[in-house]
Amino acid sequence: MPSLAEVQDEYAFLDADDRYRLLIDLGRALEPMPHALKTDATLVRGCSAAVWVYPTVREDGALHFLADSNAAITKGIIALVLLAVQDRSPAEILATDIEGALAPFDLKNQLSSNRTQGIPNMIALIRATAERYIG
Length: 135
Fold this sequence. Notes:
Blueprint: H1 4-12, H2 16-29, E1 51-57, E2 63-69, H3 72-83, H4 90-95, H5 98-102, H6 107-110, H7 113-116, H8 119-133
Antiparallel strand pairs: 1-2
Helix pairs in contact: 2-3
């Protein structure tokens, strides 16, 4: 996966349709999430599409998230969110300004409101997960 900065550089030069395609491509590049992990417990509340996020803990204590959605653009959005936090320690995740990292993408103006309404819930779930793993 590219870094968030690399995606941002590319995104800045694209028109609306290509930005949409870039997000969809990011979603397609997510590692597959086993169907068995798509449960009520991993479902992100308040999203217009179904979004599942499942944390795993690497040997070094960093969190690695699996995620999926039943909508291509929403899957791209969660992929973008994960670029800000993937494979970081819980403390690093809690110290990350995820909203600030996503601000240059101006998602609220790029996408319909029902596509972006779940983003704060995705971020809240990731932060809550990191808090659980703070040791």
